Amino acid sequence: MDKGLSLRQVSIAKDGAPLLSVTHDIAPGEVLTVMGPSGVGKSTLLAFITGTLAPAFTVTGEVWLDGQNITHAAPHQRRVGILFQDDLLFPHLSVGANLAFGLQPGGSAAERKAKIAKALEEVGLEGFEDRDPATLSGGQKARIALMRMLLSEPCGLLLDEPFSRLDAERRAQVRDMVFDRARARALPVLMVTHDAEDAQAAGGVVINLGGA
Amino acid sequence: MKHLAVLAALLAPVPALADIDPANWEAVTAEAEGQTVFWNAWGGSTTTNDFIAWVGERVMEDYGVTLEHVKLTDTADAVTRVLSEKQAGEDDDGAVDMIWINGANFAAMKEADLLFGPYAEQLPNWAVVDVEGKTVQTDFTVPTDGFESPWAMAQVVFVHDTADMPDGLGSMQELLEWTAANPGRFSYPQPPDFLGTTFLKQVLVDILPDPSVLADPATDENYDEITAPLWSYLDELTPNLWREGKAYPPTGTAMFPLIADGELDLSISFSPGAASTAIANNELPPSVRTFVLDKGTIGNASFVAIPYNSGSKAGAMVVANFLMSPEAQVRAQNPEILGYGTVLNMDALSEEDRAAFEALDLGIATLSPAELGTVQDEPHPSWATRIADDWMTRYGVSE
Amino acid sequence: MNRRRFLPILPILTLLAMLGPVAAGLWGTLLPAFGHLPAAGLIGPSLEPFRDLFDWAGLPRAMLLSISTGLLATSISLAIVMLVTAGWSGTKPFRALERLLSPLLSVPHAAAAFGLAFLIAPSGWASRLLSPGLTGWDRPPDLLIVQDTWGLTMTAGLIVKEVPFLLLITLAALGQADAQRSVAISQALGYGRVTGWLKTVFPRVYAQIRPPIYVVLAYSMSVVDVAVILGPNTPPSLSVQIVKWMSDPDLAMRLEGAAGALLQLGLVIGALVFWRLGEFVFARLGAHWVGSGMRGKLDRPVALAALAAGAICALSVLFGLVVLTIWSFAGFWGFPDALPDGFTMRNWMRFGPGTLEALGETALIAITVALVALILTIGCLEAEYRYGLTFSQRAVWLLYLPLLIPQTAFLPGLQTLMLSIGADEGRIPVMLAHLVFVLPYVFLSLADPFRAWDTRMGTIAAALRSSPNGVLWRVRMPMLLRPILTALAVGLAVSVGQYLATLLIGGGRVATLTTEAVALASGGDRRAIGVYGLMQTGAALVPFALALLIPTIAWRNRRGLRHG
What is the ipTM of this complex? Predict the structure, then answer.
């Protein structure tokens, strides 16, 4: 398989005790949902894929993205995007600068500016370039975080309980937006959540962990 | 004495004197230009510090010599430094280029060959120094032999606030009686402070029937007997001292604020003009005057010496020579600036320079040369060392 | 690539910079203490130096002074801080006291000591304000207050400086102790505020602040500058006497000083062991007290007394600075006038140029040292983050080690050692010596906020294809601007306040505001002391003000960073 995100016999153990094992291929535009209560190692799996795993964990298996083995690549060279339940916008940068941080280098200043404006427009926040992220609502922040991630042109997307901080109304709206954008860009998506509704909305394969 | 023996044992080889010839003044000034001189001098007196800073400006103007004042709390620090450098083999460019020195420190350094020289009597301004009338060729009875050059004369004076103590005293015996009648109103700096030790010597010189025995080194045989009257004097004096002798001012200048506050009525100074200067700086009330004892008081000269391993000997000689210049001497004697006695011979000066001295208003609290009376000789340095050591054992660890 | 290889060695380099000089200094003390100083032609081993030391008539009193000052200053300041926190944390008066004490932390010890002396001496400002009206004194009473034989004034001078230090340390520890809820529960069970706090929160807080308390104990036992200004002289405390011996031209004295330095080290170790044993006894008694179920009847008066004591500490430093300011502008000021006859710029004109020169030297040293310490610290913490290293509890004690070994035990040895290997004294060795003391404080100041940074920010930035260095420079450091600047200010203040390290290692050639100010103590010129003391305080305080101001201005439009 050339395109997509593949987990090949990934087994994670903490201090010798096995936590989980996964083998799965996620095709472009598809969503794999990993469900389970907290503490079963969902986030650990994501940390393994992003390359930021704490040394207490031992992992066997490989991660392949678009036909390349990224198991041992440096975190910033993996081209794996991630969204957390918190927006994690950089508080010292304006909204525009946050997006610019994500935007791949290249292009003239005017072109970059236009790309950022277009990204804001795409999520209905045109003209927000100079805003302080701390002054935005939760839903607005989530949208900015999504666009920042997409501007970095990832080849795969990880979602770590991405919607659990949002209220019911915004939740569906933001969730649809994320999945729409991911599908539009043909990104393989791996989502971990403990929320059945999220899993259902994702519409892909669901792996249940630790649930008895 | 112990340390002299150690010094002598340690420092047997004499450093070679392949240095510049002090007699060739043109060569000296030429070499001095651009040199930096680290002058190690006691830094506890702000007026002295100001004066040294001025000297620095002047030698920079005239000779291109940079003068850095290394402010010491104790001259012995500089001696230690040179000594340590010698042990470490630093013979060419030591940290110390010039030291404000006299007495035991000079004797120790000269004995241990730690000094450059002789140079003093080759300096151009030596011609106007008062060799006859002032003790500029002996330092605490030790011949200077040109290894240090004088720059100020000092003499013990007593400083009293006439608002509380209208009249002076004529002798150390009278001082003892006065403190008994006025307990807590007199103190002296804690030996081994220079001035504190001088007070002890002044007591001894004044109460001994024949102080000439002090001109020879102290010996194990005569020391106890000769100093016995001093200790009984101090035993009687101490309970009536400020703070009952449980604390002492650290230095002479530290006594000025105590007088200003009215804690002390009487103190001692080694600089006849210091009181007037302190009045000018608001440090003493205008009611302060000075007096000397009937039999006179101890006097000596302040010198500068150049360590054997100075890397800026020419620069240091330029500074030493400038210190003996009429310009520097007039300024030092000005009570608003420093109030130190001059080492110059007025008769050897030009008309103009002499007039500058005569125009000085010595200040309200400064005695005229005539009033200062007889200058008594310093005892041999061995006395001061032993007396200070003894004092520390007897009174320095009071219970 | 280079950097990747450079970063992992930074922790080792840091430890070396901190502990190397200490170890070398102790070695340089040990040999002469046993009569071995080949550079002076003395070959050991011999017990002569110790024999000389024990022959000194002042030794018992000097040792006693060191012990009593250390134990008293530490226990009293600890008691004040614990009781104030117990009785008042979370209240308005507490916040007021906290706000008052925090800036005082950076006031150098010497300036605080001078201020205190100018306040409480028989001719001090307090006496002037009350005389002759209340006291009837028209001249100062002949009382031995400053430089008293028992060192009580010196102890007081240490307490007023240690209280702010321990209070800030305690505040940091409180956050992790879940104090508020514990006190709420114990109050619901009928315990008084103070008793409830002492029984539930104190054990947890104490366990956290133990290392800094030991630092306070070791420091108070061996302090030199405060002792020179406020301590007795007949005889002085052991550390002051060691410094005197070390600067005696008689070499035999240097050996005696080295022996004294070892004795000082022994005393400090003994006192630390004694304190540790005291902790066990105290824990036993405390357990008994907790078990007794007593609810605390004296809580209110105890809390009030503690608050008063804390306020007195703050006010005496504050008014000390005020009286330094008055003296720096004073014309003639006789007793018992409450204020000088007149105010004048003359003192500032006279001493201003000298202080500026010293300020330049002070700033050069402090800025270099603090920056180096900051770089090493960030390097260590970043290495810890990138390579997943963790510091064990033992490694934390290593940080405190240079602060626990008395300065007088290793600095004289370091000086002797430097001389015997022919190293030139001067600015760079002084900087290295300062680094020993600055590094731990900078590290301790920055470590918690640096580690508390949300590492998911790093994951996000990496996912946005930012390299590890990019993450550090573009995300982590800007977000941590406030704690980084605070750590830098702490480093600057520590360096500015260094006395002994500058004096001994600088060989008198390096004149900073602190060495100049302490040197003035012997001259007793209060106007000069006022000018230098204020400049010294300013040099330590201004960086703190900037550390507050710069992030506030830089992030004025960033609400997420306003409270760092």
Answer: 0.92
